[in-house]
User: Fold this.
Amino acid sequence: MALFGVLITPSLFGFLFAQQPTGLSALDSQVSRFPEEARNTWSDWNVPYEDGKILHSLVLKGRFKNILEIGTSTGHSTIWLAWAASKTGGRVTTIEINRERYENALANFKKAGVASYIDARLADAHQAVPRLKGPYDFIFCDADKEWYLQYFLDLESKISPRGCFTAHNVLWRHDPNIKKFLDYVKGHPGFRTHIENGSGEGISVSCRVEKTE
Assistant:
């Protein structure tokens, strides 16, 4: 085969093809490097590395696009969610009440290369969540435990068919707020709930059950 008068041999074709930039692989390289390098330095109530991987896998498996996070902290979990959203054609809306953590998160999103997939909001989730319109395919809650059940109640009608509501730290067995939340979602006939152990903190996954005629 010839191109612009140059004979393209199989070996040359392979070389040229290998040199073509692929935005997705470049993003994968940048994003994967960021949480790995910062693996032992995250604080401010960020999720452990193992739990971030679970969130990423859940979003990819469900092909979720409209993602909501309650409790950004400085952005570890958000980066995992946004990385998955970059593959599903989705976007993450995340809410954080503390300005310092919010600003640190914005900087981390840029460093990780996922800022364009995130709508970060500085707000009190108690007030902001009820005003959200939805619908959402995937919700991750990692905020004040005493409000977990209220967040679910505020968002239940805004979870899309097959959508999931997930919550962190649900293996805190002696927290009465966690127990109240888990009792409710496990007993809800419209959702099926299981728990991912992950780092040992536990992530509950409550997915809407498809209605049968």
